[in-house]
């Protein structure tokens, strides 16, 4: 469905605002190689993106966002610092909410700057806020980096930490895993499998895609997990406390500082949060009233790994956010073959801006 002339005009207006901040206009093909997204997010991406097969290019995907192709372009150019802006359609499946559009125009502003990450966070947030000036919007912020630091500091085996980190963006699965790792008792079916002297006895011929060696490795991993001590109730309670935080940013920072006494692994992330709030205040953001949610951003695409934010319409809480954004340093390392560049960006939906007016 083509975008309305009004939406396209608003998209041009927003993109011009970002161009005025010295952002370079970039474009990305509507059809993108699916291999990159599958490598990043696994087969789960098939539930959220439109994939198709091209006889020459192989499996392709309708562009679910601009960030991944922009990062790929930037990592090839190696220019830093750099600022980019773009406008165009993105396509995403909506399996649980028929009211949400599965294709819409998106305008973005991305900053790659390793000199002053806190300043870059503040720059992008304030740029989006200024683009929405005069609209009845409310900002919410969070920080995925605090949760990942908390998980990385848990007193448990590395495979458990890796599993929890992999499911941070799936809140239900994350919660169930955390509870399971905190339980002393191994599930009955798994206990029976691990107690068997030969798990392959009586299983019949080998079929399927996994080799016997892969199955044996998986059983060995399950044994290691079963032998590991449970995650303490105290650590689980601290994770729950972080996820349950919802207050103004200064109050949350104070609460997190208290949590850091028992969970020191989050201290560096708190230093980054403190520097970011200072930088935002320096740009005129009222941080004393800025909302912070410990679980904010966990249902977005999985590349955000630090500061996250969104702007919602106060008068229409049923609508999707008018704008969202965040930091995605780890994504640049993945797409840059190990060479990471601190990066942060935000996107605005011009159709929702028009509705807000």
Automatic annotation (TrEMBL):
InterPro entries assigned to the protein according to its UniProt record, in alphabetical order: aa-tRNA-synth_II/BPL/LPL, HisRS-like_core, HisRS/HisZ
- Which GO-annotated molecular functions does the record name? glycosyltransferase activity
Q: Mind telling me what this protein is named?
A: ATP phosphoribosyltransferase regulatory subunit
NCBIfam families in the cross-refs? PRK12295.1-5 (NF008952)
- Pfam families referenced in this protein's UniProt entry, alphabetically: tRNA-synt_His
Keyword entries, A-Z: Glycosyltransferase, Transferase
Task: List each copy of the Class II Histidinyl-tRNA synthetase (HisRS)-like catalytic core domain by range.
Answer: 11-170, 220-347
Q: Does the keyword Glycosyltransferase apply?
A: yes
